[in-house]
Predict the structure.
Amino acid sequence: MKQLIECVPNFSEGRDMNIIKQITDKIETVEGVKLLDVDPGAATNRTVVTFVGTPDEVIEAAFRAVKKASEVIDMSKHKGEHPRMGATDVCPLVPVAGITMEETVEYARKLAKRIGDELEIPVYCYENAAFTEERRNLANCRSGEYEGMPEKLTDPHWKPDFGPAKFNAKAGVTAVGARDFLVAFNVNLNTTSTRRANSVAFDVRERGRAKREGSPVTGKIVKDENGNTVMIPGSLKCVKGIGWFIEEYGIAQISMNLTNISVTPVHIAFDETFRKAEERGIRVTGSELVGLIPLQAMLDAGKYFLRKQNRSVGVSEKELLKIAVKSMGLDDLKAFNPKEKIIEYMLDEGDKKKLIDMSLSDFADETASESPAPGGGSISAYVGSLGVSLATMVANLSSHKRGWDNKWEEFSDWAEKGQKIKDELLHLVDEDTNAFNKIMDAFGLPKGNDEEKTARQEAIQEASKYAIEIPFKVMQKAYESMEIIKAMAEIGNPNSVSDAGVGALCARTAVMGAYLNVKINASGVDDSDFVNEKLSKGLEIEEKTKELEAEILKIVNEKIT
């Protein structure tokens, strides 16, 4: 999975759009990063910017934005309602896809160090990136605000994590952190009562409600020995919530912030709110996502609701999204467009032509044209994807075969494995063509002086190795699919056993076809150890595949004759 990080810097300027644009323009100069949102606030004199991309590119874009902010914002003249201490006040990084929090922390600290070293701005690391427990809390780092920083920086206890312990009057101080993804999620109710909506919100939110003596509504609030209100916790961790009335829709909602969707995912928040509302005689009619959500969170929701129905979760990404949207009523108030709500889809290069997005006839026409790509490598990957798709189909048919109700989960697991391999092989359809293009690009590099010749030769070698790696991955994945195909031939719906047989033939073709591409591309690589390893392992995979194909076809033919 492609690694993606979100960055949400807050800049201390919310009134001058020219200044804000100068900062955001710097973000957009970095390839591999997409600017998602710019939200200025006049009263706070603060702008929240959201962009996302691959980790190194996000770090570069963030640095350029922080640098520009330090040049165009003068904190000595800044006034606003929101607490602040720097031109770039905070700069949190958020793991979105394919990356752990631990890895994100390392990127945050790398960014913080660069800001401190190159821009001479004092930097505190907060939340998950903090070096001490006290500094995890942003409020502690920012206490004193901009005006108090000259004195604070002289205190050894508050020595910055990076950068000089010296006040930067123009840029102030910056906090760089790593935090979990926050999802703003509203649940719609069939009531207009804010009080009743609040009751449900207090039931579910982590903070809960104040404990009262006697009546839970009118009773005296209970205080502890220190005079603090005693709270009755709600049922959901990492959830903040409140009830409100939305005049635009004429309904009450429970507005929630899910501060850690790995602890409380969106589907759990929805289901628990549904349950608590029902206990109070209120019906949930749907929900609403405010802002963006990672793809995986939606796929997890789709699988969750399918499992509740004892249905196979080994269905396509598109089907999982449809189930998630319908199950949570995300289209209750307005149409839910995944391309506008899911981060990964926002990053899709819409203008980039992909083979796998073509119709079957267009793909065949493109293959048959005078263009050398797509060629045998892409076709091998596509044939492999068809083979495992057939096995996945058998698993899904078997999961809801009449009389096999107790087997649905077993077949669901097989189907889920099949979908994963199918998606990987489909990705390799385009990647094989990309590998061919890399070789062509390398051969097109200048070869004038010795330095250019050396760079060109290195690029050719690197591209040629990649052109071996891709069909080798096709071999591995197609061979891996044989396990699923064999299982479906043995235990799947007997009416579909011939489909498993065809799947085996496709997988064999994919492995052997991809191996031909490994061998032909090997001739252009000078690294003999690399080549010999791939050829040796490739031959082993090919032989094992032929053996498995023979076993599967034997099973299939015995069942249909």
In short: The first strand starts at residue 4 and ends at 7. Residues 489 and 497 are 5 Å apart (CA to CA).
